[in-house]
Write a structure and sequence with these properties.
Strand content: 5-15%
Distance between the termini: 104 Å
Structural class: mainly alpha
Order of helices and strands: HHHHHHHHHEEHHH
Oligomer: single chain
Length: 369
């Protein structure tokens, strides 16, 4: 019994000694790394004090932004109060509201409240039409702001509707041979080319898309004739640039056409008679014929020819425009000298696009549907 008790005591003493040694080693280790930890903490404090964090940098910039935004908000609140006063004193259809609503819309755009700005401009447009008529010049500035706002909202159909109405009003206000009409046409052309190039409204290669581009080229050509009669060199150059960009887009639309978009004389399917021998009930055979529809190979050959012809016409039109631009540069040396870099860059771009259209034509000859 005494021996068992003595053995247990020895085991416990050995466990206590082992635990004591581990504690001593841990204490020595902590004493050894403590100075390094203190130095690291001190360096971290120095770095933190010397280089402000991103949040602190943002907070340093916030007061100016906040002050500017607060000023815009105060101005917007003042205009809203003025609108409320006009509504009470003059009514909701008073034309005096127009200027206030447009100013408020500009402030809302600066505050990135594009939906609120769009609503204000839409209300201003209706108010102007109600007071001054459907085609009054007071709508021009409103529609220009409305186009920009709807583009910010990525409302492409709304943008197109506003841009189309703006051009129709300017077309009524200005004669086709006027500088103002040409400027309006150039602005409208920029939007139409952008919408077509980015496929914002219509499917690329569709009949509607090609017709819209074709009508735009015709309008640009008429304006170019008028600009030549006025001998306005600047607008002639701008119109030639617009025509070239539109013709390039026309070639792209041709290249995207599907079979269903091509107007071909050949039918897509033809009916042919197929005969074969079948076994009859008496053990003999008999000849049975029937008709079935199959693809017409002439249709696909015709589609390939039509695609090649369209691209060839687009390439020829672009070459003609490039020749006109070169002739223009020779006939207007003063304008060319003042805009030498732009003219040279555009002519080089035209040559590159002509080569690209040549490659498109060669690919079209090899294309299979």
């Amino acid at each position: 019994m005494a021996l068992a008790y003595t053995g247990c005591m020895r085991i416990h003493i050995q466990q206590y000694l082992s635990l004591f040694r581990q504690c001593c080693l841990l204490s020595v280790f902590l004493l050894w790394i403590a100075p390094g930890l203190e130095n690291h903490a001190a360096e971290a404090e120095v770095d933190a004090a010397g280089e402000p964090s991103d949040e602190e940098s943002a907070q340093e910039l916030e007061p100016d932004d906040s002050a500017a935004r607060a000023q815009l908000l105060n101005s917007a609140a003042a205009l809203e109060q003025r609108l409320a006063t006009l509504n009470q004193t003059a009514g909701p259809y008073d034309p005096a509201r127009l200027e206030v609503q447009q100013d408020l819309a500009r402030l809302q755009q600066e505050l990135n409240n594009h939906e609120t700005a769009e609503q204000l401009l839409s209300d201003s447009l209706q108010l102007a039409r109600l007071n001054y008529g459907l085609y009054d010049e007071s709508q021009v500035d409103i529609l220009k702001a409305l186009v920009a706002t709807r583009q910010s909202l990525r409302d492409w159909e709304g943008t197109d509707a506003a841009a189309h109405l703006l051009f129709q009003i300017q077309r009524r206000l200005h004669d086709p041979d006027s500088v103002e009409y040409t400027a309006a046409l150039l602005d409208y052309s920029r939007w139409q080319i952008t919408a077509s190039r980015e496929n914002l409204l219509l499917r690329p290669g569709s009949t509607q898309a090609i017709m819209a581009i074709r009508e735009l080229i015709q309008e640009q050509r008429r304006a170019l004739d008028e600009a030549r009669q006025r001998q306005n060199a600047s607008q002639q150059w701008d119109l030639l640039n617009a025509i070239a960009s539109t013709e390039i887009e026309m070639a792209r639309q041709y290249d995207y056409q599907r079979l269903d978009d091509l107007l071909l004389n050949e039918p897509r399917f033809v009916t042919e008679t197929v005969c074969r021998l079948v076994t009859d009930g008496a053990g003999g055979t008999q000849r049975v014929c029937y008709q079935q529809q199959v693809n017409n190979p002439d249709y696909y050959r015709s589609a390939r020819r039509e695609r090649v012809n369209q691209l060839e016409r687009a390439r020829y039109a672009l070459m003609q425009t490039a020749d006109e631009m070169e002739n223009f540069s020779e006939e207007h040396p003063g304008f060319t000298a003042d805009n030498e870099a732009e003219v040279a860059a555009r002519l080089e771009e035209m040559r590159e696009m002509n080569n690209e259209l040549g490659r498109m034509v060669r690919r079209a000859r090899l294309r299979s549907w």
